[in-house]
Amino acid sequence: MYKQSNFSNTIFYSDLDGTLLNNNARLAPKCYADLQKLIDDGLLFSVASARNLNTIRNMLNGIHLSLPVVNLNGAYISDINTMRHIQINGIEKNIKKNISEIIERNNLGVFISNHQKNKDGILYYGLKNHGEHSYLCDRQNSKDQILVAVDQLSEAISSEVTCFTFIDRKEKLEELKAFIIKHNGHGIKTHLFENQYSKGWFWLTVHSHLATKSNALQFIKQEYDYTDKLLTVFGDGINDVEMFELADTAISVNNAIPIIKEKSDVVIGSNNEGSVVNYLNQLKKQSVEF
């Protein structure tokens, strides 16, 4: 239900890619400065993203967020200032085994996000297509990213696995998604979407059923005693649906997919216009005037 938020009675969470960031996966310099100023002035703000914590830290380039970060779609809830995880939602042991057998049986390539010895990493296995190798190259060029090639999936799934990521054409991944869901029931959460930076290549991510942005935001409200605060969220993609349904105020950017716009209370400008930060600036101004 839509409830009017203001600068002081609300916690704010924004998706990153396609929402807070522009199409170059960056926060414009003015938006960066304005957002840090808003937070310094008391804005309770953070991000909820499919990205991992290291990548989020590098993208935000030192912004001191005032709330925990929801990363890898809720697989992790983390303190970006200390780079420590508050909660980890790993995939159950039997499901890891089932998915690894599907991968081996069908000769699939996969990226496996894991947590081991207090470090996050990405393992990769059996890569074949251009989409997979393009992503691998991107990760190799990023800072502070642990990347390890594995020859045996049994080695990979012995650690705490938080996500399986498959990259291929849409039709192949639709079939794979249906098969994985059929054989793993309610123990998983899947997302199938086109990579907005590499058109034509789709991603299928498989998480624990507990790893959702909405579950993470409910945990944060309870754990940090924000139950008396309203929740406002910003988003654009399919992985934002559940947090839109949870929020008191759901705000979509103009470039959002149709279902997100349908579920939104407010539609603002596009991500390329810095619309999330512009909205927050305007909200602060209205609160001061009031």
Give a verbal description of the structure.
There is one protein chain. The protein is an alpha/beta fold. The chain folds into two domains: about 160 residues, 3-Layer(aba) Sandwich (Rossmann fold); about 100 residues, Hypothetical Protein, Haloacid Dehalogenase-like Hydrolase, Chain: A, domain 2 (2-Layer Sandwich). About 35% of the residues lie in helices and about 25% in strands. It has eleven helices and 14 strands. The strands form three sheets. Strands 8-7-6-9-11-10 form a six-stranded mixed beta sheet, sandwiched between helices. A five-stranded parallel beta sheet has the order 2-1-12-13-14. Strand 13, helix 10 and strand 14 form a beta-alpha-beta unit. The radius of gyration is 19 Å and the shape is globular. The two termini are about 25 Å apart.
Measure the end-to-end span. 23 Å
Indicate the CATH architecture of the largest domain: 3-Layer(aba) Sandwich
Shape: globular
Strand content: 25-35%
Model regions low in confidence, pLDDT < 50 over at least 5 residues: none
Number of helices: 11
Rg: 19 Å
CATH topology of the largest domain: Rossmann fold
Mean pLDDT: 94
Task: Provide a brief overview of the structure.
The protein has 290 residues and is of the alpha/beta class. The protein is built from 11 helices and 14 strands. Helix content is 37%, strand content 25%.
